[in-house]
User: What shape does this take?
Amino acid sequence: MTRPILISPSILSADFANLESEVQRAESAGADWLHVDVMDGHFVPNLTIGPPVVAALKRVASVPLDVHLMISEPLRYAAAFAAAGAHVLTFHIETCAGEKEARATIAEFRRLGIEKVGVSLNPDIPIERVFPVLDAVDLVLVMSVFAGFGGQKFIPDVLSKTRALRARGFEGYVEMDGGLNAETIPACAQAGADVFVSGSALFGAPDMHATLARFRTSAENSIQRDDACPLNS
Ligand code: DX5
Ligand code: ZN
Assistant: This one.
């Protein structure tokens, strides 16, 4: 199965004093989605942005907002993020006691009109934790660093989770997030990922357009060539 590659630059690494021009820079570079990292200082040891900033981004962005909730109580804030204009809304499975709570969260996101509902998990959480809800989500976000900060090093062990999702027949989006760059993207694509988040490697690049194009080409090429990726062997 060949699926289109989507690149979702993370505004966590943007210049927050100039968000509108940073959004435009990412869009001119060819961004498919814009990744928005929401952190509550509780689920992760960092604080970022909330619904008002998502709403402001929505006013200036043309591409869909891919909102990654790294917060302990996704249900409590879901309505605010839906109203702010989240297109993809992803919660962490670690925040739910079990399948029942995860299904209730997904159902509430849908009731609020979220178009694409995602579930995520940190590198130390077994992929089996999301299996019970795979039929109900559009996207699984496989974290390739521990949620909380940009600029961390890619953890290759998580590639087996992406492979496991595809081996199980999951046909939704598999997004990977953390430490992605031209060196790590090919292994992710080969494992079955189709949405690639990148913060520091894109916003820190002298030429974001060229770098994003390189990311896309390296993903496309490695999907076609199942053989030559050392991280996957
Ligand atoms: C980490 C965030 C990521 C982060 C990725 O908690 O979920 O989206 O912005 O940043 P890089 O690409 O710099 O690892
Ligand atoms: Zn993220």
